[in-house]
Amino acid sequence: MDGMLRKTYVMSLVPASIAFVVLTLLKASSALNPGDISYPPIVAPFIFFLSVLFALAGPIFYRTVFAHSVRDMKNTTAHELLRFERNLIRIALITPYMGLVAYMLDFPNLYFGGCILMSLYALYYFYPSQARLTFEKRIFKVRE
Q1: 3-state class (DSSP) for residue 128
Q2: What is the spatial distance between Cα 111 and Cα 118, in angstroms, rounded to a whole number?
């Protein structure tokens, strides 16, 4: 289970990481000038809102729905927990892509910083560590 969750984590994160490197190289070589891209003023707050939604609200809501669905069960199968954890990681790791948009469009510092902080939170909190998975198994009474 640990290996599959880590693979999901890495595979969700690799495209965003590569895109950040490519954008940084394009900006450094002046091949991409973010000042040339115009966008309506509402875009920056909206992308920040999406970052918060995918890093905080979405995972909390999804976890609540899952906990509600298994509340009356004596045990949860490892397969159900694996599916839940994979979806949770996928939801949370949409956040770095919001940070990517903020970086590409050269958002004002408040919104750019907020998107990056939400991305770092999602990366840190939803990493499938052994301690976290053991805790989740205990909470949801997983039988192996």
Answers
A1: coil
A2: 10
Question: What digits encode the pLDDT tens for the residues 32-51?
Answer: 777 677 889 899 999 999 99
Rounded to the nearest 10 degrees, the angle between the axes of helix 43-52 and helix 95-104 is 160
Nearest CA to 104 among 10, 20, 48, 17? 20
Render 71-95 in DSSP notation, one character per residue. TT-S-EEHHHHHHHHHHHHHHHTTH
43 neighbors 105 (Cβ within 8 angstroms): yes
The pair of three-digit structure tokens given for residue 106, joined into one six-digit string:
């050269």
CA-to-CA distance for 26 and 140, rounded, in angstroms? 46
The predicted model scores a pTM of 0.88
**CA-wise closest residue to 2 among 140, 134, 139:** 134
